[in-house]
Amino acid sequence: MKPDGGGIVPLMRTTLALIVGAAALASATVGTAATSAVHPGLRLAAVKPLTVRGTGFVARELVTVRVRAAGTRTSKRLRAGSAGGFVVRFDRVAVDPCAISSIAAAGASGRAAAVKLPPAQCPQPPVP
Fold first, then answer.
1. Could you tell me the residue range of the domain that residue 56 belongs to?
2. What is the DSSP letter of 61?
3. Structural domain total, the chain
């Protein structure tokens, strides 16, 4: 057998190259999956009635959506869809941009999101 020819050494080099290539591919795949993780999001879909759309939650997980407005608190529990999204309506919430203080959703998995409300340009109450 030749030391560098068609014997065991080239076979070992080929095997080693395949192992290193497979490890590099697996590492790249895991890195891509970790960086493309979906974060939950929440946004206002409509004002009348107050409708909130959620995305990025775990498929079919139980989610609680809470709204604080005009000194009152209300919440609804629902199950996210197969893609991790949902739409929920709050028919009895008074829609006043100056009164809504927060809208947030939390899933059973621990994932959470909140609506970032722009500061309302509300008139200041009159000073006596």
1. 41-114
2. -
3. 2
